[in-house]
């Protein structure tokens, strides 16, 4: 049985960045569950499915095979054998992932893969419902958050650095709307597990957040 670190929290809180750093320093496998949902979202968008079409999304799951691979220690997402990692970080894919993740069939499809990884390996896994649903017995649970303004600024800076045109106000509106959907969906809503440690990263550096999580882990 592997040692598991679960990091949950809203979009833009820095979960992926922190989880990667913690995994690297512990020598564990990093599992970005959000990227897995985004992988399915890419499939739904390619099929031209409306984000509100729950039946269409459920049916499309049958034709999608999402898998994880690692290249030079970096997680890669494959959709039907094609590496789609470079397609995952657009706002369109993020919004589709947020909407489609509330469809039970989507969660069922990915849950077994996530749990199997945690049984076989030492993992750092981040997402929306890792500590509450995917790995309820995780050895360490963290709920990582930040203000919507801070999260929007981080995303804005990230996109600008990549040369992607964007609007800060629209990004913050999207984040607030995504929080609302994630926290109020019927299936596995975003919430802090009762035994999770709350960390607000609004005024913390990446190093400070990573050190706070590492201090919770076994030596």
TrEMBL record:
ATP binds at residues 9-17. It comes from the Bacteria. It comes from Mordavella massiliensis. GO terms for cellular component: cytosol. Transmembrane segments: none annotated. This is Cytidylate kinase. It catalyses: CMP + ATP = CDP + ADP; dCMP + ATP = dCDP + ADP. InterPro entries: Cytidylate_kin (IPR003136), Cytidylate_kinase_dom (IPR011994), P-loop_NTPase (IPR027417). Coiled coil: none annotated. It is an enzyme of class 2 (transferase). It is found in: Cytoplasm. GO terms for molecular function: ATP binding; dCMP kinase activity.
